[in-house]
Design goal:
By secondary structure, the protein is mostly helical. Helix content is 66%, strand content 0%. It is globular and about 50 Å long. The N and C termini lie far apart (38 Å).
């Protein structure tokens, strides 16, 4: 498992081009899908993926366009909200 999102995959779900993983829009779109999936399901696998994807995107901040940065900022706020809500829910269970 890698943290790369390639532009195209073959019929065996392998990257069609191993060097084609630099389209940062794909990472932003994936993060948005994970954010939505967590919001709907509360499945921790989606939150975990979101955390990892946002970590990757923040490492590429200098290469992001202004629109991508705006989307990233929105995603980070949403991530924070998800984590805060999860923490509150766990605190309530412990009380």
């Amino acid at each position: 498992m890698t943290k790369r999102i390639h532009g195209e995959y073959n019929t065996n779900w392998r990257p069609a081009d191993l060097q084609d993983y630099n389209d940062l829009d794909l990472y932003v779109q994936f993060a948005q899908a994970l954010d939505e999936a967590y919001g709907v399901t509360r499945g921790l696998q989606y939150l975990n993926g979101l955390l990892k994807c946002l970590d990757t995107l923040t490492a590429y901040m200098p290469a992001l366009s202004s629109e991508q940065i705006e989307n990233l900022q929105t995603l980070v706020r949403s991530e924070r909200s998800h984590v805060d809500a999860l923490r509150r829910a766990l605190d309530e269970r412990a009380a």
